[in-house]
User: Which sequence fits this backbone?
């Protein structure tokens, strides 16, 4: 089966800035892929190259097997992009915009029922005749999603779809995106909310300073390096003057009677820590365990690469 | 060729100016009418440019062509700069439209708006003076090709401009002076030799002179020569515009 997206050794310069330094990446059909990275890492440049909005200096990119430069028509038929900014044409109503967008792809006359479904799925039916200017930010965001889907692309790129969106709308957008994935679309998501990527994505790529510094399944990323660590937070009833060496060696932070100890998930024992503290005269009144998440992995990886 | 996509972009551009027709169609017609009222009232009794043709009648084709020129430019340039500044041009750039389809859609929308304004002025002017039509084909060709020239310049200006004042500079320092100094209000034969010579380097002069020939059958320059000048200007501008669109100049990084 053809990969949904194949990126091979892509370089891009903006003047003296080397924005992409030989990025390679393959995303299979049906994947839910998360592309993460700090601001200015090269995520948007990579997405723009996929969408034909930016020209790469060298390398090759295909969408559903179609080269984005030589076979741009077919690659754009296969791709829907939800841009990050809330951009819209102020002259038109929601339905007009969707009909026009479908028309660019040769589907103006056949898109009626599909547009109705999109409006319904995104809870925009009652706003179909409203001008874009009159919609709230959240509704505009939903229209952007509908515009990206109106030509029924197999691959959908969502560039920070939940940025600046309230909690309720965010969760309804997640549901809609998950439904798209279940219907067989390949989804590429960029987001600053790492819990969003952790919850939705099967595989994650982390890009930093124009290089892909991590590319693995979510589970594999969490299983290595900082992902193996957990934080044990112990509250003591009394203050211990001299902490036992076992605890000291793993101590991350101490304040008043609260100790934060960083433990390896496989090699360090919580019971041993508790015993050592008790032997030193400490009376434990509360413990809490915090597992590492994608955010810890992300921070650790981008910090190492800087 | 993605004809459906081309037609959709053309239709969108038509719909865009039709939704604000008060500003894009009616306002230029009223402006031309005001010029007509003021200049014909002041000069009707004092000036006769061509034998047996009143100054008011002489003025109307010039005003029509001036409005055609300005509106063809305004349509493509304002649509592009607005789309670029608001960012919604992305919805066109993400589609499978080729650069040729992009050009043709913006071009024909500019031509349509320019012709609608031109016809509007003609219909209103009929209330003031009866205009003869010597050669309808010339009228159409000059109106069409002149709109195409200015529609193309509008696309170039819209792509090149990064702010509204860049575009205003284009409009105020290039389009307006060239259209005012092209023989709208006078025949170049009434100018001193130096200014006559200079006028012949102004492509807008050929548009107005040839268009006027279509009404009266008289002109300062052979209309076929004028037609050739306008056609060559369009061809050169089309090549330049298409090349800008092909490389994605200021549209695709």
Assistant:
């Amino acid at each position: 089966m053809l990969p949904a997206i194949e990126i091979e050794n892509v370089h891009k310069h903006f003047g003296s800035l080397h924005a992409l330094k030989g990025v390679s990446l393959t995303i299979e059909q049906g994947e839910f892929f998360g592309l993460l990275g700090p601001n200015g890492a090269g995520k948007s440049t990579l997405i723009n190259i996929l969408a034909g909005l930016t020209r790469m200096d060298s390398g090759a990119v295909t969408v559903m097997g179609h080269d984005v430069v030589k076979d741009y028509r077919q690659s754009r038929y296969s791709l829907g992009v939800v841009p990050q900014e809330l951009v819209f044409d102020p002259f038109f109503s929601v339905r007009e915009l969707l009909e026009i967008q479908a028309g660019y792809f040769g589907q103006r006359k056949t898109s009626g029922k599909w547009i109705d479904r999109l409006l319904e799925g995104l809870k925009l039916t009652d706003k179909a005749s409203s001008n874009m200017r009159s919609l709230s930010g959240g509704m505009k965001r939903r229209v952007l999603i509908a515009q990206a889907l109106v030509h029924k692309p197999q691959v959908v790129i969502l560039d920070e779809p939940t940025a600046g969106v309230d909690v309720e709308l965010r969760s309804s957008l997640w549901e809609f995106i998950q439904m798209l994935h279940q219907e067989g679309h390949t989804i590429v998501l960029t987001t600053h909310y790492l819990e969003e990527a952790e919850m939705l994505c099967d595989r994650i790529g982390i890009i930093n300073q124009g290089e892909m510094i991590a590319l693995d399944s979510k589970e594999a990323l969490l299983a290595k390096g900082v992902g193996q660590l957990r934080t044990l937070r112990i509250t003591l009833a009394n203050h211990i003057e001299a902490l036992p060496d076992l605890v000291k060696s793993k101590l991350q932070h101490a304040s008043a009677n609260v100790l934060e100890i960083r433990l390896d998930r496989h090699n360090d024992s919580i019971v041993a820590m508790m015993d050592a503290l008790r032997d030193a005269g400490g009376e434990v009144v509360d413990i809490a365990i915090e597992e590492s998440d994608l955010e810890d992995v992300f921070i650790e990886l981008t910090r190492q690469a800087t | 060729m993605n004809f459906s996509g081309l037609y959709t972009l053309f239709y969108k551009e038509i719909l865009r100016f039709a939704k604000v027709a008060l500003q894009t169609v009616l306002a230029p017609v009223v402006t031309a009418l005001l010029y007509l009222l003021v200049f014909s009232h002041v000069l009707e009794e004092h000036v006769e440019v061509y034998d047996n043709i009143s100054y008011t009648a002489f003025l109307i084709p010039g005003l029509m062509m001036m409005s055609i020129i300005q509106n063809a430019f305004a349509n493509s340039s304002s649509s592009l700069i607005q789309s670029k500044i608001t960012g919604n041009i992305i919805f066109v750039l993400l589609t499978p439209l080729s650069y040729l389809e992009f050009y043709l859609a913006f071009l024909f929308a500019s031509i349509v708006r320019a012709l609608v304004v031109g016809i509007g002025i003609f219909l209103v002017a009929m209330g003031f003076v009866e205009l003869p039509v010597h050669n309808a084909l010339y009228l159409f060709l000059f109106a069409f090709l002149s709109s195409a020239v200015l529609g193309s310049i509008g696309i170039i200006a819209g792509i090149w401009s990064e702010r509204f004042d860049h575009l205003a500079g284009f409009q105020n320092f290039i389009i307006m002076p060239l259209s005012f100094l092209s023989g709208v209000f006078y025949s170049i034969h009434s100018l001193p030799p130096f200014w006559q010579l200079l006028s012949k380097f102004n492509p807008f002069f050929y548009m107005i002179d040839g268009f006027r020939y279509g009404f009266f059958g008289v002109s300062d320059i052979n209309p076929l020569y004028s037609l050739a000048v306008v056609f060559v200007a369009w061809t050169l501008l089309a090549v330049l515009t298409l090349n800008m669109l092909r490389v994605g100049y200021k549209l695709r990084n």
Observations:
- Residues 38 and 208 of chain A are 7 Å apart (CA to CA).
- Chain A has two domains: 5-217, 225-305.
- The radius of gyration of chain A is 24 Å.
